[in-house]
Amino acid sequence: MLHDIAKPPWSHATEYVLMAYGEPSHDEKSIDTLRKLEEKIKNIDNVDFELLLEIFKRNHPLYQMIWGIIGSDVLDYINRDADRCGVSVDSDTNRIETHTYYDGKTYGTLTKVTEVVLKHYGSHNFMYLEVYNRKACSLAKGLIRRGIYEMIGAGKAIPSEIWDMTDDELKFLMISAGGIAKKTYIKIRNRIIPQTFLTVKIEGYESHEEVSDKPIKVYGLPEKNLMNIVEHFKDINNVIEFEKELEHELNLEPGDIVTAEMPHLDMLRPRDISLYCPGVGWTSLFKERPEWKKISNIDISRFYALRLGVSAEHRKEAYRKSDKVFDALCSLV
Known about the structure:
333 residues; alpha/beta; four-stranded mixed beta sheet
C-alpha cells in the first residue's frame, strides 16, 4: 500500500513528467512516506522498521515480496486491472501467496506450484502486451504527458504540489491552465485519442502490425537501433522537443503530435523466478521451463513497437510524409 500511496495522480503518466522537472520517483517518495511514519511503525509490536526501510530501498531480498513477478504489487494489479478492463486472466493469487518461500537469503515459491506460476506469468505478459501498451493506452499517456509538461513549463503548476493532488484536482488544474494543458485534457475526457500514422517495429516483425484499412506506415529497425531511440526518449525533454519539431515540420498545432514509445525492451523481457524444492534446494523457472523463456521473448519482440500518432484530420498528410518522419527518428541517435 505504501508503494502505491506514493504515486501522483494519473500514476506513471504524471510521474515521468514530474521527474523531468527534478521531482523524485514514486519509489523514492514511498521511502519518504515510510520515514514520516517511523514513530507510528515503531510502536507496532513485532514490526522491524529498519528491515522495512531496507526492503523499500530494495537492499534486502524480501523486496521481491513487493516488486517481483510473484510480489504482492504485481499479484494485486494484474487481477484488479483485468477485472476493470473486462478481460480474463489466469492468475491464482491465493495459491501463489500460500506457497511463497523465504530461507533468509532467497525469496521465491515452492516447485509444487510451478504450473500456477507459469499461468500467472502468462497473465502478466498478456496484460502488458495487450492492455497496458495498447495503441490507445500509449497514445493517451502521451497526451497526458504533453499537457502536464507544457502546463508546468508555462508556470501554471508547481511540480511538488502535483504529488499531493487527486485525479480530479489535476484535471481542474489543467482546465484552468488553458492552452495545451486544457486542449489535451479535453481530448482525454472526450476520448479523442490521436491515431497512429507511423510504427517502428523490430526488424523482421513488421508484418505483425495490424493496419487494417488505416493509413499506417510500418518500418523495421535492428533491435539495437530501435532501443537507442527508446533510450533517447527516456528523457521526456527529448520526447517533447521531437514532437515540437515534427509539428513545425508538418505545419500542425502544438499538441497535435504524440509519441507513444514503449518501455525499454529489457523491462519487458522475462525475469526469472526462484523455485524451492523441499529436500533438494533452489532451482528456477527458466531452468525448469527453458522453452517458455524463448517463446515469451519471441512474443514480446513480435509485439514491441514505437508509434507516432496525430489528430485524425491530419493523419493522411502525416502518413504521406512518413519517410521524412522516419528519417528524423533515426537521426536522433
